[in-house]
Write a structure and sequence with these properties.
alpha+beta; globular; about 20% helix; Ribosomal Protein L30, Chain: A; three-stranded antiparallel beta sheet; about 90 residues; two-stranded antiparallel sheet; 5 strands
């Protein structure tokens, strides 16, 4: 069982939303992010395997670029131990 507020509602002491992988998750600060698959999904939860595929990753060490929408950030949060996330400069 998880305790505390969900990640989407956590705030730091100043009342600002926390940064996720170097990307602000506020509505107006959506940018592009580069997602690289770095760890295998062998012996992993089936939902996590499907999430990696849904992100557009087909092979290990493959990278894709996505908009940093709440949906994509939620998918990354679920499989953050399998992927590396970088902010793409605009």
């Amino acid at each position: 069982m998880k305790y505390g507020a969900p990640a989407s509602r956590r705030r730091d002491r100043a009342g600002q939303r926390r940064r996720f992988g170097g990307i602000l998750t506020e509505q107006g600060t959506v940018g592009k992010i580069k997602i690289t698959w770095v760890r295998s999904t062998i012996n992993r939860n089936e939902n996590h395997k499907r999430t990696v595929r849904a992100l557009g990753l087909r092979r290990l060490n493959q990278s894709v670029v996505h908009e940093a929408t709440p949906q994509v950030l939620g998918m990354i949060e679920r499989v953050k131990y399998l992927v590396r996330v970088e902010e793409v400069p605009s």
